[in-house]
Fold this sequence. Notes:
Blueprint: H1 6-27, E1 35-36, E2 39-43, E3 46-50, E4 53-54, E5 63-67, E6 79-82, E7 88-90, E8 93-96, E9 104-107, E10 110-112, E11 125-129, E12 134-138, E13 155-157, E14 162-169, E15 180-189, E16 195-198, E17 210-211, E18 214-217, E19 222-226, E20 229-230, H2 238-241, E21 242-247, E22 252-257, E23 259-260, E24 266-267, E25 270-274, E26 284-288, E27 291-292, E28 307-311, E29 316-318, E30 331-332, E31 335-339, E32 342-346, E33 349-350, E34 368-372, E35 377-379, H3 387-413, H4 416-441
Parallel strand pairs: 23-29
Antiparallel strand pairs: 1-4, 2-3, 3-5, 5-6, 7-10, 8-9, 9-11, 11-12, 13-14, 14-15, 15-16, 17-20, 18-19, 19-21, 21-22, 24-27, 25-26, 26-28, 28-29, 30-33, 31-32, 32-34, 34-35
Helix pairs in contact: 1-3, 1-4, 3-4
Amino acid sequence: xxxxxxxxxxxxxxxxxxxxxxxxxxxxxxxxxxxxxxxxxxxxxxxxxxxxxxxxxxxxxxxxxxxxxxxxxxxxxxxxxxxxxxxxxxxxxxxxxxxxxxxxxxxxxxxxxxxxxxxxxxxxxxxxxxxxxxxxxxxxxxxxxxxxxxxxxxxxxxxxxxxxxxxxxxxxxxxxxxxxxxxxxxxxxxxxxxxxxxxxxxxxxxxxxxxxxxxxxxxxxxxxxxxxxxxxxxxxxxxxxxxxxxxxxxxxxxxxxxxxxxxxxxxxxxxxxxxxxxxxxxxxxxxxxxxxxxxxxxxxxxxxxxxxxxxxxxxxxxxxxxxxxxxxxxxxxxxxxxxxxxxxxxxxxxxxxxxxxxxxxxxxxxxxxxxxxxxxxxxxxxxxxxxxxxxxxxxxxxxxxxxxxxxxxxxxxxxxxxxxxxxxxxxxxxxxxxxxxxxxxx
Length: 442
Ligand SMILES: *[C@@H]1O[C@H](CO)[C@@H](O)[C@H](O)[C@H]1NC(C)=O
Ligand SMILES: *[C@@H]1O[C@H](CO)[C@@H](O)[C@H](O)[C@H]1NC(C)=O
Ligand SMILES: *[C@@H]1O[C@H](CO)[C@@H](O)[C@H](O)[C@H]1NC(C)=O
Ligand SMILES: *[C@@H]1O[C@H](CO)[C@@H](O)[C@H](O)[C@H]1NC(C)=O
Ligand SMILES: *[C@@H]1O[C@H](CO)[C@@H](O)[C@H](O)[C@H]1NC(C)=O
Ligand SMILES: *[C@@H]1O[C@H](CO)[C@@H](O)[C@H](O)[C@H]1NC(C)=O
Ligand SMILES: *[C@@H]1O[C@H](CO)[C@@H](O)[C@H](O)[C@H]1NC(C)=O
Ligand SMILES: *[C@@H]1O[C@H](CO)[C@@H](O)[C@H](O)[C@H]1NC(C)=O
């Protein structure tokens, strides 16, 4: 007497087939290509990415977002696309309006007519309303003439809606050498139809301009400029041990000496402000990644440590101990934001394998990495570009377990000979469905 008849086998097999397919459909999604020098902004739990340069060497106008609430330990992230920018865009800077906490301004940057190598000088500011969603281009910034395609700088917006942008590079064509600016630009976006632009007179401006820095606004109105690369690379080292501070109330610069752990000079890194201590005027800045700014470097070099913490009360650097499992390769020209206790890092250039000073498009990332800043641990995130491998693994386990269970059932029931053939047919069929899914996905 048999405990299991053929109907039971069919049911079990059908179950595996259906569950595998459901898994597949749930996991199948569009995934952005690797890129660097994109802009990013976090609005209403959605982390937006704008433009960037792709592996194909084209500057894209794509807009992607991740629902950060959906990010958790060991899940595949789901990507969504928003209406593309009017231009291909990279090396710009973004900020989120304090008036509505949702309008995103993309300022400066190098712009191209989408899908062409032709520069597009049409607008100086692109404004994205994620709620509609809709784009608007601002052709004029009143008062500015030399702000055309200003790039490699970072904007901060204060609680009064004033936007401060230090320096940056100019760009008008491929063949000229760049000028590194030393000005402080103050933009006031009144109603997003018009932007008032000025260059207030400032005191104690840094004698040597620097770019590819990070700018972080503290609650006391000081902007902390960390790292960056100077015209004369030889003095970039001082940009980590003597930070440049800009007081937004007095329009004045000062130098702040930083003690503590040695933190190698870097540019193209990222910084986030942890404000959970802000009531006690005790804010920390967490710095990730970047490339080394050694004098006369002929390629992008790695920096240590990859993660550094600046205590802005004591003005000291510290290096948290972080277990390296699930850590990213050292990235530069990536994006980073803080969401609750998670520093989310996306895209960028893998510095360790770089061979020259032009970002190597074979070394770009489209992975997401998450640093838990409460426990200083990298959270397990399944890379977007490996989600199909992950499916294969799941699927193989599904088949493997299915086959094993079947074999146990079959040995028990004594239907070995006929059923082996049946089993093979079923697995083969599933495999074909699986192959089809892969093709459908790509
Ligand atoms: C924007 O966010 C800040 C900080 O969370 C909050 O204090 C402010 O009330 C918000 N403003 C609007 C218009 O929602
Ligand atoms: C500028 O350089 C890019 C990349 O090297 C190239 O694709 C583009 O054709 C150049 N544009 C002009 C106007 O020379
Ligand atoms: C800004 O410039 C534009 C174009 O020149 C002009 O139409 C507008 O009135 C100006 N706005 C202000 C506030 O000056
Ligand atoms: C930057 O500005 C300077 C001075 O106006 C000019 O000579 C140079 O050609 C510009 N460079 C680029 C890349 O646009
Ligand atoms: C830049 O140089 C390239 C080759 O040297 C030339 O073909 C191109 O016309 C130049 N572009 C500009 C804008 O001068
Ligand atoms: C960097 O290069 C310049 C010019 O070639 C040279 O004068 C200088 O000594 C170099 N500096 C270092 C630290 O190697
Ligand atoms: C910053 O340093 C002060 C003084 O040592 C300390 O009390 C505070 O906890 C530190 N802040 C953080 C966030 O670690
Ligand atoms: C993520 O999951 C792993 C394995 O379950 C666990 O060891 C780790 O502590 C988790 N990390 C976080 C930040 O929850």
